[in-house]
Amino acid sequence: MKRLFAITFAIAALSGPTYAQQMRGERPKNPLQVEEEQRKKEAERVDQAYQAAMKKAQSGPADRVVVDPWQNMRTVDDSKTKR
């Protein structure tokens, strides 16, 4: 009987701190919950990047620099009216 009591007491003494650590904050998350949270954060980050790109693309043409890659190939006589 003394052995049973000693074993029970040892198990209780060793499992007490473990139980206390689990109860301190939230319950420990399983790997699927952690993965889901990471996916949500990644989706939010991608959405923010998309929104920023759309906002940048919707800015007016006054903000953009117009580049003519063929300007060195044209002569002075070339005009849009001759075409």
Give the structure's gist in a few sentences.
It is built from two helices and no strands. With 83 residues, the protein is an all-alpha fold.
Largest sheet: none
State the low-pLDDT regions, or none. Answer: none
Question: How many E strands?
Answer: 0
What is the share of helical residues? 55-70%
Give the amount of beta strand, in percent: under 5%
Envelope shape: rod-shaped
First-last Cα distance: 109 Å
* Order of SSEs: HH
What class, by secondary structure content? mainly alpha
By DSSP (H or I, 4+ residues per run), the number of helices equals 2
Question: What does this molecule look like?
Answer:
With 83 residues, the chain is mostly helical. The chain contains two helices and no strands. It has helices at residues 2-24, 31-57. The protein is rod-shaped, with a radius of gyration of 34 Å.
Task: Fill in the keyword field for this structure.
83 residues, rod-shaped, mainly alpha
Topology:
Layout: H1 2-24, H2 31-57
